[in-house]
Amino acid sequence: MDISILVSSPEPVYEQIVRQVQAGVATGELKPGDPLPTVRQLAGDLQLNRNTVARAYKLLEDQHVIQTAGRKGTFVRDDAFQEIGRIRSSQAERVMREMVRTLHGEGLDAAQISALFNDALLKVKP
Amino acid sequence: MNEWIDFFVYAAQAVALWVLFPRWATSFALPWMMDRNAAWVAANPRAIDRASPGGWFIQACYAWAIISILVLLVFRLGLQPVNLFPRTLQVPVWAVLMSVNNAMLALGMIGYASGAGVFLRWMTRTVPMSERRQATLQPRTADGLVPAWFRTLVLVAVGAHLLAWLLAGFAGYYQKPQFWGAFAAIHAVAIIVYFVGRASVLRRPGQMDRILGASYRRTEVCLTYAMQLLLVSYGAIALCKLVLDIDARRFSQLGTTLFVVIAVLYFTRMPGRQHGSTMLRA
Prior knowledge:
The complex is a heterodimer. Helix content of chain A is 60%, strand content 10%. Chain A has helices spanning 13-27, 39-46, 50-62, 80-105, 110-123, and strands at residues 2-6, 35-36, 66-68, 74-76. Chain B has two domains: 1-132, no CATH class; 139-247, no CATH class. Helix content of chain B is 77%, strand content 2%. Chain B is built from twelve helices and one strand. The chains are: A mainly alpha, B mainly alpha. The interface between A and B is medium-sized, with 22 and 14 residues.
């Protein structure tokens, strides 16, 4: 699997790496037990500072998506797919709460927000 | 051995290096530019003319191939001006051809490197670097790039070669005082080639990797392993010279030349041309 980053993007580079690894696991391109390149290799290939890639790997480790097994290298965790599901659920929940808070602030009540949400669900195709 | 064989081997090298290789390599000029910044190339179609094969550079390469073969032919037929090359009368024809080939090769390489340098300089100054960068999430190791049987073959050959030198050295089966110097030189080169192989595995992917895919790095790493085998054969020939006093320089030179020809033919079989023309059409 290949990843690509855009240096000039407003999204931090380490987050671009994290997002693409997560997407790889979610789509099945990265399977449980698949090895990942070393921090040195990935940093060299992307012409980045090693700390940037190390930060991305640390975040993925904290999210239980990957694990480092000493000198053997870094691997995708067996339960990575489920973890990605949990991460995405919590991210979606955060976005929803933020949106509801904003709409409440605009003076809409729960019934109006619910109606708007259902309407959007019907109109926006995945 | 007939010296015409030497002539044809060196002529084949001239064709491989100065006709086939430049034709193959220049077909990557446009893909290289597109890999650097496809949007820029699309917005500057006139730059494609600059990258099109068939310019002065490739014509100069073809001319050098013809000149090299003609010069080799002159020396093979003994038509060289003797007053300019008096030493050619004192050595056998195969040695003269070997020296002439090496001289033409060195001059050609200087010219080729200069031409490639001019293009690279133009490209890096003219085509801005894209801000998008790519990388694979697959770890790179020699195990994944070189077949196990080939790695084992090289390991056994290198081990046997080292053992043969050590045995000959410590048992005193050598007649020349420069034995240990030759031992050190050959194994120093072998160590350098080993590190070149490691660097080929670890190096950052370049334009050629993206254009040709994984086969490019695999070929490059396999070639460094093949070079170890070549060094083993060199070492065996040197050992013959030192222990048995048999001069096999001619055969080692012809062997290296054939290795170069085969390596060039192998590389030029990679689908660079089609890729370049496909990108051009797109």
